Amino acid sequence: MSEIAGNSIVATLLRLGVMGKSDWDCALQQVLEISCDLVGVERASYWSFCADPPAITCELGYVHSKRMLERGIVLTEEAAPAYFEQIRTVNILAVPDVRREPRLQPLAGYFDTHAIFGLLDVPVFSQGCLAGILCHEATHAPREWSPHDTELALTLSHTLSTLLEARARDHAERSERRAAFLAQVSTALADTLDPARAGEIVVRRGLPVLGDICTLIGYDGQRAWRVAAAHVEPAGQRLLDEMCVRYGGEIDGPGLGVQALRERQSLLMQMADEPTLREAGLAQGHIDLLVALRVRSVLSVLMRSRDVVTGVLTFASRDRNYDREDMRFAEAYAQQVGTLLENTRLYAQAQAAIAARDDFLNLAGHELRTPLTSLQLAVDRLKKSLSSPPPLAQRAVDTIARQATRLSRLTEVIVLSAHNCDGDLPLRFARLDLAALVTEVTRDFGELFTRAGCDVRLRADAEVMVDGDQTGLEVVISNLLANALKFGKGAPVEITVRRDDDTARLVVLDHGIGIPPERLDSVFERYHRAVSPTNFGGLGLGLHISAKIVDAHHGRVRVDSRPGEGATFIVELPALVPAT
After folding, report:
1. DSSP-assigned beta bridge partners for residue 69
2. Which of 19, 175, 373, 508 could hold 480 in an S-S bridge, CB 3.0 to 4.6 Å?
């Protein structure tokens, strides 16, 4: 070997030793160029293995004289089984003249097209497994391969093995970083309950990991609208805002994002040059702004929640061309934030509905006060005008008076509960007999229980004394009886009042549909409903109000239930010593 040739080989080996191993595509091209130089062939290529179906694909080929790159040819094992057997069983496949090798006859068309005569193939392993083939092809004449040629080819294959393992490590590290990134975004979104703020977080967090520009368009199945847009630089943000104002997110408008919405699929524009943008139907002003933003590549991915499309995220880069891996990562990002954004939107919607309900209850409470006051005054006048009414009429008047007072006090409690007020309830405490109070309220419910076909069984101790508000406790008792009437219709209702040492205990047991176990802990929450409102009406406030009243009496209320076995509500209050 001449000194010049030796220096050339040393120089190329040095190039091989110092080249960067993080960029696989660039490194692979460099290895193929060096292969042509060192081995002295016209063509060098790397073919990667695919297991299903068994095949090899030309990941990259280099033609020395033309300085041209090739890729994409696929050779299946079914088409050339003898060749696949060879590359699986021998370390080196060195063929001086492929036209004289019967086992390579299925590849004759490929050899003829490229004028190939000599073939030197060496395996490339990664993590102990055959990953691909490094192929050297001599053209226009047969080639006898020397031991030096095979030694160089094996050295180059070892280099590719190192590069493949570095790529695998880099891919694993990148996947780990991306997983951490997605987790951080979830945490950031979990801390905000404002949909507008959540949209800003989504586009800002996507930069610069996924690109230099990000826009978010919302979608409700018919209408699309711009939610947020972000650029990595302030000057670019101004141009982006101008573009968003001039070319909004209407569903029938131009742009990759709304096109993705219309077609219900992710879209990737690897090279967003002017001819491509013009072909996509964008107006010249729109194109001018994208050029000013120095957009090089664009991709749009759909956001979904429970398989329903809720929006689209569009990313743009100024310095790289997106590929399928970028699209998959963007889709994973969109899938994660899509669910979080929808949850934020639903929470805000629920809060708005609760606020509207509170406003309605507050308004209804205030509006009820005037007719209730008039009703109470009318009852007072009626009682004064009746000197000696019949027992039935007197009982009716007393019932109307008592219920009007109860309704008036209940209205005040509802207004406070609707606003989730933490202040004191409007209660007036006095010594009273809980047993007598329960008996009286149960009698008021008598006709209702009869109509519902409920057999009421009341057992009460004598003089179960408590320090309580009569109207407030009447509300508690009424709510529990109404609850039993509603969910235990047609079944017996058992009511017990007794004193156990220093505790006054009221138990209301129905034999109705019962409460699912997962809802037992929340039946006393504001607006909570243990059953579907489709079959059973109500606002979900009765038990919540009862719990607040009981708590104001320094007592407690609890429930025990099984589905299909009814429910047992237990109220416990501090008992007073009976009067002697």
Report:
1. 62
2. 508
